[in-house]
Amino acid sequence: MADDYVRLVEVGARDGLQNEKRTLPPQIRVQLLEMLADAGLRTLEAGAFVSSRWVPQMAGSAEVLKSLTTRTGVTWTALVPNVKGLEAAIEAGCREVAIFAAASEAFSQKNINCSIAQSLRRYQEVMVRARDAGVRVRGYVSCVMGCPFTGHVKPEAVAAVSASLFAMGCYEVSLGDTIGAGTPAATKTLINACSQVVPVSVLAGHFHDSYGMAIANIHAALEAGVRIFDSSVAGLGGCPYSPGATGNVATEDVIYLLNGLGMNHGVDLDALIEIGEFINAELGRETASRVSRALLAKRGLVETN
Ligand code: HMG
Ligand code: MG
Hints:
Layout (H helix, E strand, L loop, with lengths): L6 E4 L1 H5 L9 H13 L4 E6 L12 H7 L7 E5 L3 H9 L4 E7 L2 H8 L3 H18 L2 E7 L12 H13 L4 E6 L6 H11 L8 E5 L6 H10 L4 E4 L19 H11 L7 H15 L6 H9 L7
Parallel strand pairs: 1-2, 1-8, 2-3, 3-4, 4-5, 5-6, 6-7, 7-8
Helix pairs in contact: 2-3, 2-11, 7-8, 8-9
The chain binds 3-hydroxy-3-methylglutaryl-coenzyme A (HMG) and magnesium ion.
């Protein structure tokens, strides 16, 4: 893979929609995902096989996964917190899933109702079953630059959980700045710590934009050698167990950055802006993408202030 190629993981239909007030029916989620794949995105989180008592917005994920078209080169994936979730994902046709651990004990308890060590034992069982079924597993670490409940999180704590996920067989480890509190300097420190224990080529950056730092952090991570980033069209969402966190960095903004850097990604920015308009209308919200807002204003479609 050329060093100027960046792979984006579109998480809007999962991380985004899981925290929007309006819960969308499966057919709209499918429409969104198909449009995003048409726009050139190749890895797309389509749902989560979690308890719908914990995250009601992700109910109907099986129907979403079953309805998506099979496309060469496109991976539809979903979050699973345990073997029960994995079995449901496999039944719905998933060939890839993601497990999600945290670098903060308090967040682990609030998010998945167990300690970090318990979650890693649970994920070990998921890995065994996934391997048997030939399902690829991506790993997440949350709270990599701060916890909504306990504040500072040490890079060494993130590196330790990342190493565990990689050692148990995750093909990629996504570092989640759940509360969006990171800065470029902290991002570099974090990548340096994690790349001691996991190859930088399999580290992904997952930045929420609560403090407006996500694009700066992605730039810092690019400089540190990261080439995989998670993002959400229109900057949808947040995290239901992270009070105050805003959505992921907008995919449109990441594409604009990459275009400016002359880096390859294979995604059509104009198409993304249209998709953002579609999903915002469904949700009754404004876009969180600065790039979208600026380009729509240029076309005279929205007012600037
Ligand atoms: P629990 O209450 O401890 O689970 O929840 P339990 O094993 O005691 O079971 C309780 C009930 O849940 C039972 O049902 C189980 O069958 C059911 P009942 O008998 O009471 O009717 N259950 C399930 N149902 C559906 N799917 C399942 C499942 N497992 C058990 N897989 C559990 C533990 C993990 C289930 C719960 O805490 C949960 O679902 N948590 C999900 C939280 C979540 O999705 N958070 C958002 C995603 S993480 C995130 O956004 C961060 C990320 O973006 C990166 C970043 O930004 O940092 C990835
Ligand atoms: Mg997230």
